[in-house]
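Narrative summary of target 7.
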Amino acid sequence: MTAWQSLLEELVRERRPMLIGYAALLTGSRDEAEDLVHDAIVRTFGRPRAFPNVNAADAYVRRAIASTFIDRVRSNRRWRVAMPRLVAGAAVPEDVAARLDVRAALLTLPRRERTCVVMRFYDDLTVADIAAGLGLSDGAVKRYLSDGIHHLNAVLGTATDPDVEDTPVAVMHVTREGPGR
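Modeled conformation, tokenized:
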């Protein structure tokens, strides 16, 4: 067995659940997240690459997950513009105002806001890095982050400061029972 094969096996065995969790934050669906992780792993290990350890491979796969998700969103947007709506009112968001569930609250955000919020507060990327990755201006990313944070505050009943400057962030884990530690 070659080095890349053993690294791939270790990555899938040890990190797959965390990678699927990360992808689920972006997609909002476990099934889509599993597909996204699979595609990112194929993209990563489909050509010869030398990773010094599983952490480096994990970081590369996470970047591939984000890139693949962005590509899919762009492709889906083209279809939505080209195809007429089949059912009026089909995109009604789930009512999550009474739940303190961050994941469900993220699902209520428009895709671009959700992507910016996840990349900023989960990946801890700077506004400039997010803008470069999404092909947006810094101002547009700041606007998406501000709008997303305001929306999440309304849904979760929190009062997080929506300042999206590039300062270190601490994300509080919130469950249905209340704030966690």
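Confidence is low (pLDDT under 50) at residues 81-100, 166-181.
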